[in-house]
Specification:
It contains 14 helices and two strands, in the order H-H-E-E-H-H-H-H-H-H-H-H-H-H-H-H. With about 375 residues, the protein is mainly alpha-helical.
Length: about 375
């Protein structure tokens, strides 16, 4: 009887600790779930489709701008449960989300130039850095602790823009960006909570709820894509929350995450590593780093004939594995942890390029979704 009461007490304490996180998550989930069907209807009515091109895997037009429902779910959830303030950090953060949301919608409708999008993203990243959300230290990585002020701004801006676009670029097949984003957000939410930044964690849980509801419509065969409307906001939020998690642990007397930069890098390592790899290969071959092709991590499998569903599951499984390895690596020196992450990702890339020799299954034709 005593054990039973103790379990109930532990559950009650856990619920109290994560009550608002759960409310944010489920509110966003429900709002997004009920919002997507009418959005699909409107998109079909006005023919706002994602049309296939040289870099895309689907072969027929699919409704896009599912990010509208994701962002709507997140924002309504936060309006109900998030403790807003007039702090410069919050104002800058939500202003940036609003601008990126509008930028994503314009890009989904008119296919804006990459230069125009980069200018706005760099401007928003600068606003975030000026507001005080900055990478101030490497926490001993490469023997570097506190960074000079100009280095803080430069590295923060590059990190925000880089991670934002990494998630945008990995959104290439059904369920992939959503799956990776969901796991990253839940990880950020839990570790922000454990690190004492419960309010910021609510943002992670709210967006995670919206992403999970969206995935019901986005898993292969997809009925809607998130588009740049969703992927830009997803990448930006994850980038800012990663910086926040790193700073909370670096400045804490008793950090939950020693060597936080390496763990935080693990949260975004697959999309970031893949973007760097693809850009490097294009430049090496004398092409523009932004030239469309099919060399991203998901293409390594789909080019061999594996289905979208199988490819997304494999890469999401690898992302979960990277997250666990990154957490395990916090017990090592940061340089060793970074080396393990990089070596593991190189091995996984080689493995995926030769997956047909390892998976003895019937390879299906590419999805027409």
């Amino acid at each position: 009887m005593k054990n039973h009461l103790l379990q109930l007490l532990q559950f009650d304490l856990l619920f109290r600790e994560y009550k608002f996180a759960l409310l944010c998550f489920f509110t966003a989930f429900v709002v997004t779930l009920i919002t997507i069907p009418p959005i699909i209807t409107l998109i079909r009515k006005y023919s706002l489709y994602d049309v296939p091109d040289a870099r895309k895997e689907h072969s027929s037009p699919i409704p896009t701008m599912g990010g509208i429902a994701i962002v709507a779910g997140m924002l309504l959830s936060l309006i109900l449960w998030f403790p807003f303030s007039n702090s410069i950090e919050q104002v800058s953060f939500f202003f940036s989300i609003a601008v990126l949301f509008g930028l994503g919608m314009m890009d989904d409708l008119k296919d804006l130039s990459a230069k125009y999008k980069f200018v706005i993203q760099f401007a928003l990243a600068t606003i975030i850095a000026l507001s005080g959300i900055r990478i101030s230290s490497f926490d001993g990585l490469f023997g570097i602790d506190e960074l000079p002020v100009m280095a803080q701004y430069t590295i923060t801006i590059l990190a925000v823009v880089g991670i934002t676009n990494a998630f945008n670029l990995i959104d290439g097949i059904d369920g992939l960006a959503g799956g990776i984003g969901f796991m990253s957000l839940v990880t950020l939410g839990f570790f922000l909570s454990m690190s004492g930044d419960v309010n910021t964690a609510l943002i992670a849980f709210a967006l995670a709820g919206g992403i999970l509801a969206f995935m019901y419509f986005n898993l292969n065969p997809a009925r809607i894509f998130m588009g740049d409307t969703g992927s830009l906001v997803l990448g930006f939020v994850i980038a800012v929350l990663c910086i926040r998690l790193m700073e909370v642990n670096i400045t804490s007397a008793n950090p939950v995450l020693p060597h936080a930069p390496v763990f935080v890098l693990g949260i975004v390592f697959i999309p970031v590593f893949d973007t760097i790899r693809v850009f490097t290969m294009r430049i090496w071959n004398g092409k523009s780093p932004f030239s469309p092709d099919k060399t991203h991590i998901h293409h390594l499998l789909t080019n061999q004939g594996f289905s979208h569903a199988f490819t997304a599951k494999v890469i999401c499984f690898l992302h979960a594995f990277i997250l666990m390895e990154a957490y395990w690596s916090i017990n090592f020196k940061p340089e060793i942890g970074l080396f393990i992450l990089t070596a593991l990702m190189l091995l996984l890339t080689v493995f995926l390029k030769n997956a047909r020799y390892f998976f003895k299954i019937k390879i299906t034709k590419k999805s027409t979704a």
